[in-house]
Amino acid sequence: MSIFDEELRNLKERILKMGLLVEAAIRDSIKSLVDRDPDLAGEVIKRDHQINALDVEIDEECIRLLAIRQPKAGDLRFITTAMKITTDLERMGDLAEDICERAIELNEEPPLKPYIDIPRMAEIAQGMLIDVLDAFVRKDTSVAYDVIHRDDEVDNLTVQIFNELVFFMIQDPRAVSRAVKITYIAKYLERIADHATNIAEMVVYMVEGRMIRHTEAK
Amino acid sequence: MSIFDEELRNLKERILKMGLLVEAAIRDSIKSLVDRDPDLAGEVIKRDHQINALDVEIDEECIRLLAIRQPKAGDLRFITTAMKITTDLERMGDLAEDICERAIELNEEPPLKPYIDIPRMAEIAQGMLIDVLDAFVRKDTSVAYDVIHRDDEVDNLTVQIFNELVFFMIQDPRAVSRAVKITYIAKYLERIADHATNIAEMVVYMVEGRMIRHTEAK
Fold first, then answer.
1. Which end of chain A is more exposed for a tag (fewer CB within 10 A), N or C?
2. Which domain range does residue B69 map to?
């Protein structure tokens, strides 16, 4: 194995590590919401700097590899894609923080209703994240296409949650502020799934050399 | 001027062109909302493919320059930053489309109230976009920092709009569905401003070699 191969393997590992930190942040943000645990929410927010640090580290390593290894073709595309993917991962981490902030606020008021669709949405989004990272490191477009298709499920759940909460708000004006915050959490999860979908589109682009859009993949 | 200098100049021009298309999309999306003009909203949605095409074109050109020019130091960072910036611009274009979709829906119902804060938010966000592109092509961090600071204004307006609309919803249950859609538009504009802020952070990183976060720049 050449030094460059070793460096690429190391790069992949760091991206996976970053992805797992983001996945844990999403999982714990939803756990803090469901369990009404503001301490856990605070922990997730505190941990975000680890994700940000990895973003910078990976970016620097990619710049270094571009400068000294002058990669061509597939390796070049892999490295430039890695730089973009970490930007998406970093923003997913920020969205987990946003969920935590809403969870802390919601915890200060009585519960509106048990959470059922939000944890389901989160589970799908987490699965999309794990799978798309796998698709990236293994350059597997079939997994990437599968992730893109799952985004529709998340979009449908967002609409369903929205309609249900509008119903709550119409029934009881005292529910409005809490209900809007819950629709925001649904929106954050939708955006997390969108980031996973964007990464999947980049993986297809990296491997097949053509840019697909979510709407076309349907 | 060397061929490479010429190529870099051409790259900058294409990024500015893409940025202006995105700015026009945001402006027209808000115009379609305020003027209750669904045809204009439809036009913006139709035009989005131009933004997507430029995204792919610029990306390909950056890959080509990395492969054949083997840029170093400042030029290398400029090109990798360009690749990331176009991803942000493309997503800002998608958000303008989202605004148009909500504008079309809102147009099918009676108006809730005159729009005042939403156009103000849009104006700030558009200004941030124009200025951050200028900061990028001129490598001017003082303009980039200024953009980052303006993001707080947008965040404050989002909270203000949210509170006002919650008040509407509490007063009149029939307003709920429309009011929630308007809070979504505020959220889309907030995200557009966030993208401009992200680009500003990348410009600082490109020039100063250090990653700042919105919260630290305050």
1. N
2. 3-217
Summarize pLDDT for B108-147 with one digit per residue, the tens. 999 998 899 999 999 999 999 999 999 999 999 999 999 9
In angstroms, the CA A161 to CA A150 distance is 17
Residue with tokens 């076309």: A216
What is the tally of structural domains in chain A?
1
pTM: 0.91
CB A86 within 8 A of CB A18: yes
Q: Is residue B113 within 8 Å of B168, Cβ to Cβ?
A: yes
Closest CA to B33 of B97, B76, B128, B93: B97
Q: Which residues contact B160 (CB under 8 A, 6 or more apart)?
A: B117
Query: Residue B1: exposed, middle, or buried by beta-carbon count in 10 A (0-12, 13-18, 19+)?
Result: exposed
Provide the CATH number for the domain around residue A31.
1.20.58.220
Q: What percent of chain A has pLDDT over 70?
A: 97
Q: In chain B, which residues touch A (CB < 8 A)?
A: 52, 55-56, 62-63, 66-67, 70, 72-73, 76-77, 80, 83-84, 87, 91, 162, 166, 169-171, 173-174, 176-177, 180, 183-184, 187, 198, 211, 213
Q: Do B162 and A180 touch (CB under 8 A)?
A: yes
What is the C-alpha to C-alpha distance for residues B127 and B117, in angstroms, rounded to an integer?
15
Residues A13/A138, Cβ–Cβ less than 8 Å: no
